[in-house]
Write a structure and sequence with these properties.
Layout (H helix, E strand, L loop, with lengths): L10 E3 L2 E2 L24 E3 L2 H16 L9 E8 L5 E4 L1 H12 L4 E14 L4 E14 L2 E13 L5 E9 L8
Parallel strand pairs: 4-9
Antiparallel strand pairs: 1-2, 1-3, 3-6, 4-5, 6-7, 7-8, 8-9
Length: 174
């Protein structure tokens, strides 16, 4: 994809922004050492989709998940870092999320990065988000680094979430 006014290339390759094959490289000249099983052609997506996802994050932090009900599609699947899943309609997703959230005294998230993406060969919309979530439960603080991919349908509604996390290094300076 190319921004017509500036000529900037917005295509994303396997490791980030770079020239598209149409701009300067013959598609046969790059041989990745692996073949992507799902997709390998991404372009920068609509920032409104990132806003939708970050509003859900904000509802999670504030402890008021009902604010996010309209962000979800009629059928949603959430796959969490521990392997558990949550499937259902917006009401069941919000109710289950709120019940889980109520286990914590506070949650505070620091956003590290957010990228709205279009999966070109599948005509899908994703938002990738990275951050650090700090929780307080019964007076005990804990933190984890998060990476989540959120998929949105053509109406801009969330229908799939995939979460990954790791404990931050003790000397984390990122």
């Amino acid at each position: 994809a190319c921004d017509n006014e500036s000529g900037n290339n917005n295509q994303m390759g396997a490791f980030g922004p770079g020239p598209s094959t149409a701009d300067s490289l013959n598609s046969d000249s790059i041989q990745y050492p692996y073949t992507a099983t799902y997709a390998d052609q991404f372009s920068v997506g609509n920032s409104q989709h990132a806003q939708t996802v970050l509003n859900v994050w904000k509802s999670w932090d504030s402890g008021n998940m009902s604010q996010s009900k309209d962000a979800f599609a009629d059928s949603v699947t959430m796959v969490f870092a521990d392997g558990s899943t949550l499937k259902g309609n917006p009401d069941s997703i919000i109710n289950a999320s709120q019940q889980y959230r109520n286990n914590y005294d506070t949650i505070s998230t620091t956003l590290e990065a957010v990228v709205p993406l279009k999966v070109d060969e599948k005509n899908e919309t994703w938002v990738s988000v990275w951050g650090v979530e700090t929780t307080t439960k019964n007076g005990k603080k804990d933190s984890m680094k998060l990476h989540e991919t959120w998929r949105l349908n053509n109406a801009g509604k969330i229908y799939h979430v995939q979460q990954y996390f790791a404990k931050p290094p003790i000397t984390d300076t990122l």
